[in-house]
Specification:
It contains six helices and eight strands; from the N terminus they run H-E-H-E-H-E-H-E-E-E-E-E-H-H. The strands form two sheets. The protein has a five-stranded parallel β-sheet with strand order 1-8-2-3-4, with helices on one face. Strand 6 and strand 7 form a beta hairpin.
Amino acid sequence: RMLGIENEEDYVGDGISFCAVCDGAFYKDQTVAVIGGGNSALQEAVLLSDLCEKVYVFQNLAIFTGENKLLEILSKKDNVELLTEVTVKELKGEDELEGVVLNTVSGEKEVKIDGLFVAIGLEPKNSAFSTVAGLDENGYFNSDESCVTKSQGIFVAGDCRQKRIRQITTASADGAVAALAACRYIDNR
C-alpha cells in the first residue's frame, strides 16, 4: 500500500522501499525511517536497526499496534526513535529521497533521511474479479472462513480475501478449505 503523497512514485527505488530484507543493505550506516505501527513495520525496524546508523519509526496512531515484544526490542536500541501521531506530509529531494516533512501534534517537522520503508499494509489486486466475487471496502474478496463467494462455484483462498492474519500457513489452509468446498459444489451438481 502506498502513502498517497504527491510525487511518491518518483522515489520508489530511489529512496522509497517496501522490504528491509531486500533493500536494507543499501542503507548500511545511513538514516532511514519506517512508516507503520504493526508487526511488519516493527520487524522491518528491528532488522534495519542492526544495519543503519539511525532508524525512525513513524506511526499515525497514538499507539503502536504491533507486538509488545517488538516494541521492547526497539525501545532498547539507542539508534531507534519511535514517533507516534505523525504522518508524512511531503517528500524532499532532487533525484532521490533526502527527507520528509511530517505533520505532528505540535506542527510540522522536517526529518532528513536516506531511505523510507513503507509498511502500512498491502493492496490486493482483485478489482478485475469484483463482479463475480465481490470486494470489501479495502479491495479484499468478501468471503469468510468458508472461502465461498457471492457467485456459486467461485471460491477464494489466501491473502486476497478478508482475513485478520495473512501468512503462508493461513493461505495454505484457505486452499484446502476452498478445494473441499469446490469438491462439494461439484458433487452436488
